[in-house]
Automatic annotation (TrEMBL):
Pfam families, sorted: Aldolase
Protein name: 2-dehydro-3-deoxy-6-phosphogalactonate aldolase
Keywords on record: Carbohydrate metabolism, Lyase
Organismal lineage: Bacteria, Pseudomonadati, Pseudomonadota, Alphaproteobacteria, Rhodobacterales
Record flagged with keyword Nucleotide-binding: no
The organism's place on the tree of life at top rank: Bacteria
Amino acid sequence: MSRNIIAILRGITHPQAVEAAEALIEAGIDQIEVPLNSPEPLRSIAAMAENCGDRALIGAGTVLTADDVAAVKAAGGRLVVSPDCNPEVIDATKAAAMLSYPGVFSPTEAFTALRHGADGLKIFPAAQLGPSYVKAIRAVLPPETPVYAVGGAGPDNFGTWFAAGATGFGLGTSLYTPGLTTAEIAQRAATIVAAYDAALG
């Protein structure tokens, strides 16, 4: 079962990248991004794409430019996640036949992203907007639009976000912080997957 969870491995290092990805996949999380402000992110993405790309969607976060998109593509990534809505990044991502999840904070940004072909929206930072914002914007978004809450969503409140209309989550520190062992990542992932499944009913 594939879940609408994107694991955000900010700060992961190349030596741990593949084993961390394997732990996430085993737990049931098969969408993984390495933010480009991590150490040697493209090296980690390339290793994960080579070893796990047939079982997981691997890509990058904190993608800010079209050049970044090209670099992620060259590394074997298929997913591009950004903190902002930059039409140039979305256009470059779609031209490269990759999936685009830009960060949006307003209806204007949300519809700009969709008009440029974004595959889904990253509501960020979600904690500042809250589930009520997702409920409100859902009233005007195309109903099939994937909406991921990122920053403030986690296993303690999945149900609240689902009820408001979120379809998925980007999870960072609740899944991974630098220094965690792979066993600790696996344990956190299992807890998160159990909470996600319970919230879905």
